[in-house]
Amino acid sequence: GTPPIISMIPVRAGIELVRLSDGGSAGFLIGGESARALSFSPDGKQLAAATADGVLIFSLPGGKSRLAFPLPGGADAVRFIGPSQLAIATDSGARLFHADDDGRTIDSWDGKREPGPLCFSPTGRFLAIGADGELRIVDLEKGGAPQKVKLPGKVTAIGWSMSGQVLAAGTDA
After folding, report:
1. Cα angle for residues 105, 84, 159 (degrees, 5° grid)
2. Positive or negative, the Cα torsion across 150, 156, 161, 162?
3. Mean model confidence pLDDT for the chain
4. Which residues contact 148 (CB under 8 A, 6 or more apart)?
5. What is the mean pLDDT of residues 22-36?
6. Can you say whether the dihedral through the CA atoms of 137, 51, 81, 39 is positive or negative?
7. Angstrom distance (rounded) from CA 113 to CA 131
8. What is d(CA 115, CA 37) in angstroms, rounded to the nearest whole number?
9. pLDDT value, residue 109
10. pLDDT tens figures, 107-136
11. pTM (2 decimals)?
């Protein structure tokens, strides 16, 4: 097998960019220490961070940041869904936004839900929500009742494949 990568990156608060080739630092971004979720833009020139203040956008490689989408309760999840568009979740997914990277709201949805993991599809059209014993998939464009998938245990984490065809759900019995 391949030996593990051993890195000597110093401990510091912020966002560390890590080179996978050798485990070394590819840069350090100041201001993202409260990041709850991260998403690279399709061209890799920006990084969006869901933080306690809202959504920060970092320019790469320099790391200059700006608060692109301020939110009083902060942002829980963020995903680039195009070169300059974002899908954003706040209030544990009860408020959802499609916005541009200059902070203008394109569309928004309000709802009620219990706190838990959530994940946008690659296009931002769907939102997967984890709960105790099930995974709910909401179509943000067409609305209606969510599709439900029964799972054993509580859903603790969700990841959506780049193709949009597969969801990974971590569960705890």
Report:
1. 90
2. positive
3. 85
4. 134, 135, 136, 137
5. 83
6. negative
7. 9
8. 15
9. 82
10. 888 876 667 788 888 888 888 888 888 898
11. 0.78
Instruction: Please give the structure tokens belonging to residue 167.
Output: 């969801």
Peptide bond into 61 cis (omega under 30): yes
Q: DSSP for the chain? A: -PPPP---PPP-SSEEEE-TTTS-EEEEETT-TT-SEEEE-TTSSEEEEEETTEEEEEETTT--EEEEEE-TT--SEEEE-SSSEEEEEEGGGTEEEEEETTS-EEEEEE----S--EEE-TTSSEEEEEEEEEEEEEETTT-SSPEEEEEEEEEEEEEE-TTSS-EEEEEE-
Q: What is the pLDDT of residue 173?
A: 72
CA atoms within 13 A on the CB side of 44: 2
127 CB-contact burial (10 Å; exposed 0-12 / middle 13-18 / buried 19+): buried
- The CB density around residue 92, as the number of other CB atoms within 10 Å, is 17
The answer to whether 158 and 171 have CB atoms below 8 angstroms apart is no
With CA atoms as reference, report the closest residue to 122 among 156, 167, 154, 89.
Answer: 167
Residues facing 70 on adjacent strands:
54
Q: What angle do CA 170, 139, 91 make, to 5 degrees?
A: 65
